[in-house]
Structures are given as C-alpha cells and as structure tokens.
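Reopening this ticket.

The earlier resolution said the output was attached, but the attachment link was broken on my side. Pasting everything inline this time so it's all in one place.
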Amino acid sequence: METLRPSRRIALAACAAVAMLTSTPVLADQAAAGTCAAALPAEAKLVYDAALPGVVAGGELRATIKAAAVALVKSSQLSRSSAKGAAEAAAGCLKQV
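Inline output:
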C-alpha cells in the first residue's frame, strides 16, 4: 500500500470532513421538532414527514417543503387547497430541526 505525503493526508481528511458535513441532516434540536410534529394536524404531519429527509445543513428549507408538498398533491395524498396551510404548519416544526 502506498503511503501518502502529510500534505495529501491533510487534504484528503479535509475533503472527507467537508463531504460529511454537507450531507449530514441538521440535528440541532431533533427532539423539539419531533414533539412539535406530534401536535401537527394530519395533513401538516404528512408534509413534515415528507420534507424531513430533505432538510440538510445549509439547505433551502422553503424549497424542500415546497417540493414535498407538491409531490404529495401530485400523488393525491394532500389536497391542493390545504397544501399551503399544511406546509406553513410543517415549516414551524421543521425550522427547529
């Protein structure tokens, strides 16, 4: 096995750290977000559950929630008329993640 020069080891470690940090979900207060989500109405909880996997550090929360709500409407799991209210309610909890 080839040994790496110290400068390459540092660069490799830095790249690995950046990759891990940018793809790790934000877990600032997962417990508080879960408690909040438990109190959501059914449609808002549906949006919360659909959007939660897409919430990442530095990500655009609004776009993530919108994409989840649109997907739920397209799959007939959420009515178009209630999507906005459900998304807004879910956003309150997702902001805590």
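Reporter confirms the inline version is readable. The first helix runs from residue 6 to 23. The CA atoms of residues 12 and 18 lie 10 Å apart.
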